[in-house]
Amino acid sequence: MKQVFLTVTANIPLTETVFEMVLKGDVSEVKNSGEFINIKLEGKYLRRPISVCDVSENSLTIVYKVVGGGTEQMSQMPVGTKLDVLVGLGNGYDLAPAGDKPLLLGGGVGVPPLYNLAKRLIAAGKQVSVVLGFNTKAEVFYEDEFKKLGATVYVTTADGSYGIKGFVTDAMKDIDYTYFYTCGPEPMLKAVYTASNTSGQMSFEERMGCGFGACMGCSCKTLTGYKRICKEGPVMKKEEILWEN
Amino acid sequence: MGKLSVNLCGIELDNPIIPASGTFGFGYEFAELYDINCLGTFSFKGTTKDPRFGNPTPRIAECSAGMINAVGLQNPGVEKVISEELPKLKACFNKKVMANVSGFAVEDYAYTCALLDKEDQVGWLEVNVSCPNVHGGGMSFGTNPDAAAEVTAAVKKVTTKPVIIKLSPNVTDIVSIAKACEAAGADGISLINTLLGMRIDLRTKKPIIANKMGGFSGAAIFPVAVRMVYQVANAVNIPIVGMGGVTTAEDVIEMMLAGATAVEVGAANLVNPFACRDIINDLPKAMEKYKINSINEIIGGCK
Q: The domain containing residue B268 runs over which residues?
């Protein structure tokens, strides 16, 4: 973890409520796909944890949804805004067990952390399939971005207004894959867990206090002991997940 | 003695800054960020007799200038704290540490404190009496002078280390509880623990925190803490560790003027992981501004 000061160089809407923000500065501490950053906002007490969508030598991209006052404030930030950010948080995805044909499944704002993961897997010579799940056509984002990386992309919408009608698991059943990586709302993660016929990794979400392991605000029980979503997570292996309800 | 040093229950601190229990783990997470030997000491994660997972999540809610937590004393239990956490703590911290202890029965407190008493690195036992007493109908030990005194006396029997009783602010008369602890042998009083609070999610119309209510901390509670430290400091003759919303070097000075010998910093660590280091660095300049030569001389300076 490192505290850095990053400058907003882009902040554009992808849909009515989802924004893409590019932050420039020292991002050398960002190591793995699936990590998150924790952003200090003017007038808000706690930082905002947001997963990293993509990272380059001197900038990173986040894609966030406006869900409350903090993200609303972020959506209004002009280019040039300087932000106090903790970077290099969380474990991120482990690429090693991917096999030849990894499958990536993202639901809503669970899509962004899979982008850099797809990029790295494709760079490693993997044949990557991606399923992007949304509620409706107006919410779809990043379909072209994943296609440009060279992934085979399937889009599902719950109302059938675009792509395959249904959930990510409806697309999943017809895809041949060696391993899966997923991020999305918990009901989706549970459905993927049940529908999957290989091992995989899932990224979880929880309300956090600090984001770096100090407050125990985001603890969860796993089959391999208690874990902090922010520190030993947010990515868990399928084999260690303990569904409590 | 340096101009920042203070004496807390017979142990000299290089400075009065102490990260508060529950916001600093066992130190090693923060030792990755800065040399934590710059601290006066720190109060480690609240330790109980048995391991605890704590409350279900969500455990955290944000407030204006503060936060609510209902972690529920998650900790691996005193045996594992001694065998696994303290060696890691020792590797990054070479001063005496404050052991924070919680319990749900008087015997639990005594059991945990007796084990921690044998640890050389433990300088003080900070006993949190805000937990519910399972034998007392679930009422917190800290809301009743007799129950708080009973815990104090039980702990004093099993240790020779200074015992600091950490009081809950969620009471009608904190002074009477502080006095009862002093009479039962407490070597110091620390206050305030968190204020009971609650937030409701307007969309779901349900409490944000799974436990419904939790402890309110952060900058917003600072004036309440200063008031209670002032009241208690004027009623007892043992040292006070003041805490509650402390965020800056100026806050530290204010807390000490109110009567604190040392000052704990809690929620601020969660927002700015460097908060305690920054406060220590800022303290000499703040002292200069207010013409304070030695921090020790301002303790209880507000009459």
A: 6-298
Would you name the residues of B annotated as active-site residues?
131
| Interatomic CA distance for residues B6 and A233, integer angstroms | 40
Q: Return the residue in B59, B75, B217 with the most chain A beta carbons within 10 A, the one to mutate for interface testing.
A: B59
Mean pLDDT for the stretch of residues B114-137: 91
Averaged pLDDT score across all residues of chain A: 97
Confidence of residue A245 (pLDDT cuts 50, 70, 90): low
Q: Do A217 and B219 touch (CB under 8 A)?
A: no
Same domain membership, residue A121 and residue A42: no
Domain count, chain B: 1
CB atoms within 10 A of CB A133: 32
A93-105: pLDDT as tens digits: 999 999 999 999 9
User: Model ipTM?
Assistant: 0.93
Which residues, 6 or more positions from A203, have their beta carbon under 8 angstroms from its beta carbon?
A34, A51, A93, A110, A113, A182, A183, A233, A234, A235, A236
Interchain CB distance below 8 Å, A218 and B60: yes
Q: Are residues A199 and A136 in the same domain?
A: yes
* Chain centroid to CA B38: 18
Shortest alpha-carbon distance between residue B295 and chain A (Å): 29
Phi and psi, residue A30, nearest 5°: -75, 115
**Quick one: DSSP state of residue B295?**
G
Asked if the structure places residue B1 within a domain, the reply is: no
pLDDT digits (tens, 9 = 90+) for B179-201: 999 999 999 999 999 999 999 99
The answer as to whether A230 is a domain residue is no
Structure tokens at B92: 């990054």
A199 and A100 belong to one structural domain: yes
Chain A residues 202-231 within an 8 A CB cutoff of chain B: 206-210, 212-221, 226, 231
Minimal-distance CA residue of chain A relative to B22: A215
Cα–Cα dist B5/A222, whole Å? 45
| Residue A9 domain-assigned (yes or no) | yes
Which residues are within 8 A (CB) of A36 and not within 5 positions of it... i.e. 6 or more apart? A49, A50, A51, A52, A89, A90, A113, A211, A230, A234
Rounded CA-CA distance B212/B240 in Å is 31
CA dist., res. B266 & res. B298, Å (int): 22
What is d(CA A163, CA A157) in angstroms, rounded to the nearest whole number? 6
Question: Is B59 in contact with A221 (Cβ distance < 8 A)?
Answer: no
Other beta carbons within 10 angstroms of residue B121's beta carbon come to 16
Give the number of other Cβ atoms within 10 Å of residue A46's Cβ.
26
